[in-house]
Amino acid sequence: MIDQMESAAKGSDFDLYFGPAHSGSGNFGVKLKINGEQVVSAVSDPGYLHRGFEKLMEYRVPIQNAVISDRLCVLEALNWNLLHAEAVDELMGIDIPERAKYIRVIVAELSRIQSHIIWFGVLSIGIGFDTGFKLAFGYRDYILDLFEMITGGRVYPTGYICPGGVRRDLPDGAEEKILQVLDKIEEMIDLEELENPVFKARLKGLAVLTLYDAIRLGATGPVIRASGMKTDVRKDEPYEVYDRFDFEIPVRYEGDAYARFLIGVEEMKQSIKIIKQALRDLPDGPVIDKKLKKPRPKGKIPKGEVYVRNEVSRGEGAFYMISDGSGMPYRCKIRGPSFLHMIPVLEYLLKGVQIADVPAVYWSLNICPADLDR
Amino acid sequence: MEWGIVSRLAKNLFSKPMTVRFPFEAIPIAEGYRGEHHYDIDKCISCGLCAKICPNRVIEMIEAPEAYREKYPKKYAKIDLGKCCFCALCQDICPKGAIKLTKNVFLGTFDRMVSIKYPSFPEEVKSDVAQNST
After folding, report:
1. Please, how many CA atoms are within 13 Å of residue A39, restricted to the half-sphere of its CB?
2. I need a labelling partner for B46 at 20 to 30 A (CA). Which of A208, A279, B4, B106 fits?
3. List of chain B residues whose C-beta atoms are within 8 Å of the C-beta of residue A60
């Protein structure tokens, strides 16, 4: 009897599958080796959301690829639109109109905010705080209303940011509406900053990623900023018109899940600051390059190769594109920030945590299976 | 502000809901929304640009049925809404404005064949054909 009790207290090893059909994980699985309540090791199991975009893009012209590029990450479609458009612009050597640059920044930052709101929502549901999830999706809808008005679609802008500029101008009264929505978002940020005891109890000191490990495992974006590195592509290598705006890069040094959550909140504030400045300085003029005004089913991209990197909301996203002189890219390699967050970083952080903390660690990294699998 | 969320939740008990009761009321859809296509066969010049630009290869140029071929001898757009991503590139490229995306979003169906939109012919032509055949 005592032997049995002792062996039960030691715990037994077994495998636990977190995902791919788990409501908390998206289309992504983690194979956990469990001892009692503790995770001994974790192996990521990606590939359930592979849609082959890199290959699809080799058979389509840039304007069609702009439509496809939305789906690289559903939750921040406009950031990926921007990244694709920048790669093609650089290959074609187009200098896009000033107004288009400002509109691109405004919609990309709005997209970043709504992605961070979702992050708050899923992190809340990961720790069992369902109210946060409902709040987040309620407030996100205000931004989706803006997207519906500006781009014509709520979630998928379908290539709104296209090579040469943007596909349509801001509608009448858009500026005021954006400012109204930003007020609502500030309300949401106040709610997030309420020092919720649930968040503190569940996230403080959980899954600490030191700066050394963050660099070694290839973390970027909010994850590495929460570990103490001040890095942001918008500041380090400014694209579009980011160098004209005054904003800060939030940094925290704790490296735990709570620090990552706070970085997300702080980044939303900075995005609001950027949008307000962009709306103030928004110039008049055309929104798309003359030559690309009408979509063309045929056209030439000059020979060359280009590597463009951007700060998408999850980290550093990049496009590597080679053109062989025909109208379609010869090769298109996409670097999704979630790839390194979901495989080496997640596997490293999950070692030693309790089963109940697995979703909290998973979502504290702000990851998206869609841009991992592409 | 340790328990700030609780006071906030108490406040929410007396505030208006964020949602609307859908079948009875709805949030208005913005101008320029990309919904179901409206295809005007009389404006169409059968250039086929929409079929070429479509990223999902949704549009196929087909011949009109035998009965209408006299009035409509060229090829016209057949749109498979099941494949469509509603990008509106066909609307942007159309030189005559024959394809327009409307605000209709109620496209859910149980029958896959319903989602294929064949070019529809004007009522006058249909009645003409009916008269001639009798």
Report:
1. 25
2. B106
3. 55
CB atoms within 10 A of CB A333: 14
Q: In angstroms, rounded to a whole number, what is the distance separating the alpha carbons of residues B120 and B118? A: 6
- Of the candidates A68, A195, A295, the beta carbon closest to that of B2 is on A195
The β-bridge partners of B80 are B116
Q: How far is B123 from chain A (nearest CA, A)?
A: 31
Which of B50, B87, B89, B94 is the mutation pick for testing A, counting most A CBs within 10 A?
A: B87
pLDDT range class, residue B134, cuts 50, 70, 90 = low
Place of tokens 């789906």: A71
Question: What does the pLDDT look like over A65-90, one tens digit per residue?
Answer: 888 888 888 888 889 989 999 998 88
Name, in order, each residue with C-beta under 8 angstroms of A315's C-beta and a sequence gap of 6 or more.
Answer: A219, A220, A221, A222, A223, A224, A337, A338, A340, A341, A366
ipTM: 0.81
CATH class of A11-372: mainly alpha
Model confidence, pTM: 0.87
Contact A103, A67 (CB under 8 A): no
Q: Write out pLDDT tens, residues A115-139.
A: 999 888 888 888 888 878 888 888 8
Residue of B nearest to A172 (CA): B31
CB contacts under 8 A, B 29-88 vs A, are 29-34, 49, 52-55, 85-88
Q: How many CB pairs under 8 A join A and B?
A: 74
